[in-house]
Write a structure and sequence with these properties.
The protein is about 50% helix and about 15% strand. It is an alpha/beta fold.
Length: about 240
């Protein structure tokens, strides 16, 4: 796995192309560390998750999973999923090729997903005698509706990028990898130039599940807005103070 940092952006790239970037326990541990580190760094506005070699990820490495079953609460796959759900920076995925199993469920936690037309998505958990992870049984029905979520998870059949886009799982589809790289670079750099606190707070509001009425959301919006204004005023006062 490769982790690179540029101004405002942390790029996390899966680099196991010979195995279509199938994820091992060690890779999950590295992913958990990379996401936790990005979350703790206030300079990181965007985390970009991508693959290599024409694959996003084929999902779990099943042989490695059998040898290292995620049975404890501190198992690397579970640490990664916790870090994924808690991530404060904007999470962007660039998908090219297969996005299988966790390669699809992880996208439910992304704020923006860009994919090539040749990308393929699949949720094969039931076929493997398992259940979907990453809170996808909650998040997928919210996104696509209960019956469509049942179809995707119970049958575990592949679906293409056009369908993923129609369902709202993918933000935009590009013709090929070069177009994907250009689009993602443009979108990520646009985000990286925005105020970091405002980005994180807007993401937090978008994902907030406690303020579920208009009145409660108005109150939450107001409190967050007032806090940001007060913080800006204090920062302005510090800059204006002589010496």
């Amino acid at each position: 796995m490769e982790v690179r940092t540029a101004p405002g952006v942390r790029t996390v790239r899966l680099t196991r192309p010979a195995k279509r970037n199938a994820i091992t326990s060690a890779m999950y541990a590295a992913l958990a560390d990379a996401f936790t580190s990005a979350d703790a760094d206030d300079d990181v506005r965007v985390v970009l998750l991508t693959g290599s070699g024409g694959s996003f990820t084929a999902g779990n490495d099943l042989a490695d999973m059998a040898a290292n079953p995620p049975l404890g609460d501190d198992a690397p796959p579970l640490r990664f999923l916790d870090a994924l759900a808690a991530l404060r920076p904007v999470l962007v995925a660039a998908v090219d090729g297969p996005a299988i199993g966790v390669g699809t469920t992880v996208l439910l936690h992304c704020d923006l997903v860009y994919a090539t037309a040749r990308s393929i998505f699949r949720l094969p958990f039931v076929n493997l005698g398992l259940v979907p992870e990453a809170a996808s049984t909650l998040l997928l029905p919210r996104l696509v509706g209960a019956q469509k979520a049942a179809e995707l998870t119970l049958f575990g059949e592949p679906f293409d990028a056009a369908e993923a886009h129609r369902l709202g799982l993918v933000t935009a589809v590009t013709e090929d990898g070069a177009a994907l790289d250009a689009l993602v670079e443009d979108r990520v750099q646009a985000l990286a130039g925005k105020p970091g606190v405002a980005l994180r707070e807007t993401k937090r509001l978008l994902r907030n599940e406690s303020a579920t009425t208009v009145a409660a959301r108005l109150d939450l919006d107001r409190r967050v807005m007032q806090q940001l204004i007060e913080d800006q005023q204090r920062a302005g006062a510090r800059r204006a103070k002589p010496g």
